[in-house]
């Protein structure tokens, strides 16, 4: 119910109200709320733009299996925006987002492009890719608070 209050507030341009609704949910483990909080920091909606804070919330949502958050945190590790650049982590999160049905088709498409690029231009060795793919297959999301 609190999530929906946040969504209504956000859609009405009441970013403070949205954050007040979503932040406690995000802190307690709701992936969608964490994703929304990350987006607010990403685009400076009602808060000071803060890529480090945004990445923190994208990672929390990604850890809980949120497909779009997985795609977005992959991009952060790829570019080093808000986190230390780490191609191995980027590859893992792109891989997980590509296989996640909650990821939008557009993001799954781009995740596939990035994954093929890492291999084709040699950013990661075959051994690194094999290790990361094994790690991704064994990955389990943290339970999400609905």
Radius of gyration: 16 Å
Text of the CATH class: Mainly Alpha
The name of the CATH topology is Serine Threonine Protein Phosphatase 5, Tetratricopeptide repeat
Helix proportion range: over 70%
Overall number of domains: 1
Sheet having the most strands: none
Q: Can you tell me the overall shape?
A: elongated
Average pLDDT, rounded to a whole number, is 94
Order of helices and strands: HHHHHHHH
What is the tally of beta strands?
0
Number of helices: 8
Head-to-tail CA distance between termini = 10 Å
Quaternary state of this entry equals single chain
Query: What class do helices, strands and sheet pairing give?
Result: mainly alpha
In short:
This protein has 146 residues and is mainly α. The chain has helices spanning 2-11, 15-27, 31-43, 51-63, 67-79, 87-98, 105-120, 126-138.
Describe this structure in words.
With about 150 residues, the chain is mainly α. The chain has one domain: Serine Threonine Protein Phosphatase 5, Tetratricopeptide repeat. Helices cover about 70% and strands about 0% of the residues. It is built from 8 helices and no strands. The protein has helices spanning about 1-10, 15-25, 30-45, 50-65, 65-80, 85-100, 105-120, 125-140. Helix 4 (about 50-65) packs across helix 5 and helix 6 (about 85-100) packs across helix 8 (about 125-140).
